[in-house]
Amino acid sequence: MTDDPTKLDSLGWEALKKALNQRLVVSRVRFMPSKVNRVWVVETDVRPVIVKRSLSGKCGNEFESLLQARLAGIEVPYPLMKDDEYLVMEYIPGDACDLLINRFFSNAAADGIGKWLARYHVLSRDDKASKIVGDAVLSNFLLHDGRVYGVDLEDSRIGNPLDDLGQMAASVLGSEPFFTPIKFDLCMRLLKSYGRASGNDVVESSRLFISKHLQIDAKSRPLFRRVFVRVAKTLEAGWPRLA
Fold first, then answer.
1. Does the global pTM surpass 0.70?
2. Among 111, 196, 210, 242, which residue's CB has the most CB atoms within a 10 Å radius?
3. Mind listing the domains of the chain with CATH numbers?
4. What is the rounded CA–CA span in Å between residue 6 and residue 39?
5. Does residue 2 register a pLDDT over 60?
């Protein structure tokens, strides 16, 4: 084991070799910041891969969720191997959706996320619940070759799809620049894309869930708490009129 948390340790190297099942030449290892886990992009002469050390204890859940989604034709990294707390998966190049939405106000990203969520929510669906992401925020999605990929499914579970939509819409609205007209336009675009793909109009039914997640987010945004709560309360009454 290594004392440097940014370095891939011996167990990580073993997981990598098992996943690719051959001798390999490593040209570069990049440590990727993560709130909970430790993630590396490893470039080899075989293929680039992601090695993820799960500190959350959810490695098995993520492996199974990725495999289920991939088998259903949903755009996610292909899981190559799980070994204790290490997950090795396909590396997906692309543009981060948080960057695309917050800096470039990308309609393609908003449309793609809405469509992706609608397809994911069909998994394990019954009359009362669906498979949901559980951590539906912009930073967990990429746009590659015109298609959106979900790249972090460790919190996936059975739940209410509107909770995913509320969290995602709150992520769009509550990322800088906060609550601007174009952000509301992108949020509405995402919800309507979901509606077209799922056959369910969620524009009104998602409002209270968006409000809930904005109020949750307000707790970790002390400098902006009042504005987050104010917008959340506005959404409880209806969509705001924008000039």
1. yes
2. 210
3. 10-90 (3.30.200.20), 95-237 (1.10.510.10)
4. 9
5. no
